[in-house]
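Most newcomers find our protein records easier to grasp once they have seen one. Sequence and backbone structure share a record, each on its own labelled line. To make this concrete, we reproduce a full record directly below:
***
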Amino acid sequence: MSTQVVWDRGVSISGHRIWLDPLVVRTFAFISHAHTDHARRHKEALLTPQTLALIPEARRPRGWRMLGYGEPMRIGRATVTLHSAGHMLGSAQLLFEHQGTKVLYTGDIKLRQPGGVQTHVPKAHVIVIESTYGRPHFRFGDPDSTVEAIARWCRLALDSRVTPVLLCHALGKTEEIMLALSSYGFKFALEKRCVPCAHAYAMAGRSLPDWVELDGEVEPGRVVIAPPAGKDEVRRLGRYRTALVSGWAKDAEFSRMFGADATFDLSDHCDFDELLEVVERSGAEQVYTVHGYTEDFARLLRKRGIKASALEATEQLALAL
């Protein structure tokens, strides 16, 4: 019987009892990272120790198998291995191997991080790749140059006695931007929704630079970090300026939604060119796209002579490998 990749409110490899980031609760599922749009209370989950530590209690699976990077695990007749995805602490790609066929599921992936870190992409016959930024206008700047630009913006605001406020997602982006800016000597004040995430990051083994919880007035010299939506606490600061830190900075309409004074395209996802590079590095003969601009990215790949389909195009789609 041929191996199949199946889409049914999540990705599955038929005949092998494993779902990959499913949208609903399953008996056994791989959770690629701790963001709540991927975490579910599955009966049993395969995930990294860091991902388990970061998942909020309400989303935590009822049972789990923890697996480190590069450690093969047998699941029935197949072998799976996890590799860093570069998206956030604990995020993982899953390489599935059975009877000589290799399937790579990227989960949310980022090739280039600040500090020159590059994410390894395993070789595979088939790749299932996220396409959050799967349109050509999503081309981001060099991460280190962008971090430097954010640092200059923060310093200019502080020198003008204005509080700089970075608008970032609470889990993952907040902590990574703190780490990226730590070499510039900044101290931070975190909006209350970011606080549990910062504590969880530290408990999961990633020490963070000096920070306090934002509580009314902020101590002079601190950079405030808050989620993009719901800025009630930020509005109490007095003199402040906001900057949206996201790949969506490349989308003018999205940026306007948050009314930021500045935008920086520092993302924890691949931009369009990085997505192409992931496909190329994998050496895959077949590409399936999930999440985001799936059909657009698949169509652009086909124009480049690559066999590609949007896996989410129909409610259920079985594809022979």
Q: What stands out?
A: The first strand starts at residue 4 and ends at 7.
